[in-house]
């Protein structure tokens, strides 16, 4: 997608997850902010210390590139692959904390979220709505999203930890070529999250270094702020009840404020490209967590090595009534790394 196409898409409705990431590459920035990819070969095993998979936070991601902290948690590991042949994933996981790795088979990258949709909705309609949520950021209020991610490169795993209550879910997994032009194909795979009962000891809750809270007031809260440099575990929690959000983490030039970011996207949404080089073209991708509804908790690993005062968390999800992205209503928070 060319920058002019980005401006056109913003004028049309919003910048979706896929459009923002693809257009960012064309703009020379904002490249695929750590989205997740389902990998089609679920393996319930803990990797050997010398065989730790490399993170998909490479090839254009600033500050990320390690999975050591996540792997060291000792959580049950499931790896999922997504390809033209389908989604290779387990049908059951134990309730509690799980570590999920997702991968798209070349030439594809993949998106994954674990979700629940309303009873009575047929699978074809649910699949179309899941694609709308994942690709176009259009989310219906009566869906529950537990969390997920998107891969950055074909054949590379992206990992995240997730706290799953017992219940019936679906794995929503899609694949697409990261050129912005190919069709994105979504599949829903049933998943039962079972209560292990008294016979099994649940994995202990991991302890995070950083907490990223999102809420119904369309705000992110990063604590502590400033964030220390280094390889850290980030806990992402939606403390609201009514709205689902994702988290796109980006590093802007020092001195950039949340108001400036909102103003730039507001002008794009109004059909007025900014004069000069857009802030988005000067931004660097840092991390991404897929849709989470109220009560959902996930964890990602970020190794932030570059200090700065204009790291930002942004939500591009569309308000289902106003049909405008949450960022235009203020869901942008900047924080400092030092």
Write a compact overview of the structure shown.
The protein is of the alpha+beta class. It has helices at 3-12, 17-27, 68-71, 123-136, 258-269; strands at residues 77-83, 86-88, 92-94, 96-104, 109-116, 144-150, 158-164, 167-176, 185-194, 210-214, 220-223, 230-238, 245-251, 284-292, 297-304, 308-314, 332-337.
Task: Offer a few descriptive terms.
single chain, Immunoglobulin-like, 17 strands, 35% strand
- Which runs of at least 5 residues are low in confidence (pLDDT < 50)? 1-15, 21-63
- Judging by the overall fold, what is the CATH architecture of the largest domain? Sandwich
3D shape: globular
Number of domains: 2
> Strand share of the residues?
35-45%
The tally of strands reads: 17
Q: What structural class should be given to the helix and strand makeup?
A: alpha+beta
Q: Mind describing the biggest β-sheet?
A: 8 strands, mixed
CATH superfamily of the largest domain: Cupredoxins -  blue copper proteins
User: What is the level 1 CATH name of the largest domain?
Assistant: Mainly Beta
The helix content, as a percent range, equals: 10-25%
- Radius of gyration, in angstroms, nearest whole number: 18 Å
CATH topology of the largest domain: Immunoglobulin-like
Give helix and strand order, one letter per element, not per position: HHHEEEEEHEEEEEEEEHEEEE
Distance between the termini: 34 Å
Count of discrete alpha- or pi-helical segments spanning 4 or more residues:
5
Mean pLDDT: 83
Spatial sequence of strands, sheet with the most strands: 2-1-4-7-15-12-10-11
